[in-house]
């Protein structure tokens, strides 16, 4: 029986960091947001943004805390960045992170059967690829000796301003003469052809075999980083491929609106919690 999740519940939380994975470049860490209670809680992996080149597990702390206080075990992980290792290194970290969370969830009073994922901006790109190709040998290349039979299949995905078409985002950066983003893209997609191979939009257009878990996309109306029209096209393509995709545009919001307190940020939190509750309820009824 899948763990019940009621978004209106409120819990005290405990927050701490643990070692996630040792890499030759650096030690990757995870931040655990654990609701305090005596029952298993649903579990969520958070993948941070940063244009594949910066930020870490702390980037989404306000949202992670908010979700945890409603009764979700949230685990935010560091991802290798492009200056350390280009694509597909960060997707390998994400894939490993899903398996690692499933293996560790009970230790932190979480339910491994409920694992979903949240990705923001470039983290949205990474979580989409992880979800669509959970058993891809390019992505599950990092062994997890303590749980070798686990895979990275997800129950659902939430993506805030995801880079669902990284080549379209690159073209937008060129049009805007946004040199930093141009260089970020070239540094991550190296060799350059990987921007097409590791492109969620183009993967669907090519008709490749994929896994399509339920997906909820939150998009800012005024986003000039990832254009709303590009995002809407991805949502429509995802549905045509057979996946369930809810797509919501947040009025008067830019790319990183949830980084600032306000009514639309609060609304995003509540919508995410309601979406997770619906997915877990459906899973529980189907069990």
What does it look like?
By secondary structure, the protein is α/β, with parallel strands linked by helices. It has a single domain (13-165, 200-286), classed as Alpha/Beta hydrolase fold, catalytic domain (Rossmann fold). Helix content is 36%, strand content 20%. It contains nine helices and eight strands. It has an eight-stranded mixed β-sheet with strand order 1-2-4-3-5-6-7-8, sandwiched between helices. Helix 8 links the parallel strand 7 (215-220) and strand 8. Helix 2 (89-104) packs across helix 3 and helix 4 runs antiparallel to helix 5. The longest helix has 24 residues, at 263-286. The chain is globular. It starts with 12 loop residues before the first strand and ends with a helix. The mean pLDDT is 96.
Instruction: Give the H and E element order.
Output: EEEHEHEHEHHHHEHEH
Report the principal-axis shape: globular
Radius of gyration: 18 Å
| CATH architectural grouping | 3-Layer(aba) Sandwich
Name of the level-1 CATH class:
Alpha Beta
The structural domain count equals: 1
CATH superfamily: Alpha/Beta hydrolase fold, catalytic domain
CATH fold title: Rossmann fold
Strand order of the largest sheet: 1-2-4-3-5-6-7-8
Question: What's the rounded overall pLDDT mean?
Answer: 96
Q: How many helices in DSSP terms?
A: 9
| Distance N to C terminus | 6 Å
Largest sheet: 8 strands, mixed
Structural class from helices and strands?
alpha/beta
Poorly predicted segments: none
Number of extended strands: 8
Helix percentage: 25-40%
- Proportion in β-strands: 15-25%
């Amino acid at each position: 029986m899948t763990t019940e999740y009621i978004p209106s519940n409120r819990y005290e939380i405990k927050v701490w960091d643990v070692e996630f994975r040792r890499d030759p470049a650096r030690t990757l860490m995870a931040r655990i947001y654990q609701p305090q209670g005596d029952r298993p809680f649903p579990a969520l992996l958070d993948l941070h943004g940063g244009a594949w080149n910066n930020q870490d597990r702390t980037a989404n702390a306000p949202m992670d805390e908010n979700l945890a206080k409603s009764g979700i075990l949230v685990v935010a992980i560091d991802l290798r960045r492009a200056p350390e290792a280009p694509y597909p290194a960060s997707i390998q970290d994400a894939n490993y992170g899903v398996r690692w969370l499933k293996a560790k969830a009970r230790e932190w009073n979480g339910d491994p059967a409920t694992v979903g994922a949240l990705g923001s901006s470039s983290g949205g790109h990474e979580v989409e690829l992880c979800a669509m190709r959970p058993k891809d040998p390019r992505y599950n290349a990092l062994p997890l000796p303590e749980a070798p039979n686990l895979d990275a299949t997800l129950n659902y995905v939430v993506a805030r301003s995801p880079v669902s078409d990284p080549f379209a985002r690159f073209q937008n950066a060129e049009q805007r003469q946004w040199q930093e983003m141009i260089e970020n893209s070239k540094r991550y997609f190296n060799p350059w052809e990987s921007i097409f191979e590791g492109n969620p939009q183009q993967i669907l257009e090519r008709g490749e075999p994929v896994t399509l878990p339920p997906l909820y996309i939150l998009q800012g109306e005024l986003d000039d980083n990832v254009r709303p029209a590009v995002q809407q096209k991805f949502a429509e393509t995802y549905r045509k491929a057979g996946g369930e995709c809810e797509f919501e545009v947040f009025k008067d919001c830019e790319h990183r609106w949830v980084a600032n307190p306000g009514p639309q940020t609060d609304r995003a939190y509540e919508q995410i919690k309601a979406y997770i509750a619906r997915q877990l309820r459906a899973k529980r009824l189907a069990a």
